[in-house]
Amino acid sequence: MTIERPIRVLIVDDEPLARNKLQLLLGRDPEIEIAGEAENAQRAVELIAMLRPDVLFLDVQMPDGDGFEVLSQIPPEMMPAVIFTTAFDMYAIRAFEAQALDYLLKPFDEERFAKVLMRAKSHLARTIAARTESGTETPSAAATAERFVIKTGGRIIFLNSTDIDWFQAEANYVRLHTGAASYSIRGTIGATESKLDRQSFVRIHRSVIVNVERIREIRPCNSGEFIVTLTNGKEVPASRNYRDNLIPLLTRTL
User: Fold this and answer.
1) Which among 30, 27, 63, 25 has a CA at the least distance from the CA of 44?
2) pLDDT above 60: residue 166
3) What pLDDT is stored for residue 220 in this prediction?
4) Are 79 and 52 a contacting pair, CB within 8 Å?
5) Is the bond leading into 107 cis (omega within 30 degrees of zero)?
6) Residues 17-76: pLDDT tens digits?
7) Which residues contact 198 (CB under 8 A, 6 or more apart)?
8) Are residues 15 and 128 in the same domain?
9) Which residues span the domain enclosing 237?
10) Cβ distance 97 to 70 under 8 Å?
């Protein structure tokens, strides 16, 4: 699906040369409209509220604050898709934990920039398609998590949400199950649910969220509960309190 209007972009960077480079690269794309520029964090917050951009190219370090402080002041319904631009790789994990769409490490070349911009376009197209399909308002472009960043055994793993079979609550953590592997991230199952695409994931129990594409079978049990069998053979419980989440989605999907 293509986007039938220009993609509005806001550039935030305290360095004029960095803003000029982004202007030049973005200006070559006829689908892009540069809505504005900001040279500091305070002005960035003002322009996001005023211009409501689709995509935000955001520097991390600025004289009056950092990019994360900017995002903390933006309500979810106004949050654009965020692409961090910085010369420091130390912020990468924090950026993805903030649900940034991508992370451009300076200096970047045109090939890397083109890939990032294409990813932003695809993300926006999926957001618009989801809104059209549901006929209702959906979260902003950056509200759903496409990737999870996992730190384990001295490694950093980037896991696409579509590769996850199911999520399981574990006290102050959530375990992500993907194939034969599983990983733990800090957070609650409720917060995780709020970041997921509601068309692709459904909460079936107070401690379980499943990927709809992984559901193979549903078997009713006593007292209005179900057993959901996934494509890998794993059986997970679906409680009566969450059956209203499950049935409409299965009617549409299966």
Assistant:
1) 63
2) yes
3) 80
4) no
5) yes
6) 999 999 999 999 999 999 999 999 999 999 999 999 999 999 999 988 889 999 989 888
7) none
8) yes
9) 161-253
10) no
Q: Is the pLDDT of residue 133 over 80?
A: no
Q: Which residues of 126-145 are buried (b: 16+ CB within 10 A; e: fewer)?
A: bbbebeeeeeeebbbbbbbb
Element (H, E) at 249: helix 243-253
Locate tokens 């961090």: which residue? 84
Instruction: Answer whether 225's CB lies under 8 Å from 188's CB.
Output: no
On whether both 109 and 11 belong to a single domain, the answer is yes
Tokens 């957001």 correspond to what residue?
127
pTM, full prediction: 0.60
Q: Whose structure tokens read 């399909």?
A: 133
Cβ-count burial of 153 within 10 angstroms (0-12 exposed, 13-18 middle, 19+ buried)? Answer: exposed
∠ CA 235-163-170, nearest 5°, is 55
Pair type for strands 81-86 and 55-59? parallel
Q: Verify that 128 and 243 share a domain, yes or no.
A: no
Helices (H) and strands (E) in the chain, counts: 7, 17
The C-alpha angle 66, 67, 72, rounded to 5 degrees, equals: 100
* Domain total in the chain: 2
| Two tokens, residue 69 | 């402080």
Residues whose CB falls within 8 Å of the CB of residue 30, separated by 6 or more in sequence, listed in order: none
CATH of the domain at 120: 3.40.50.2300
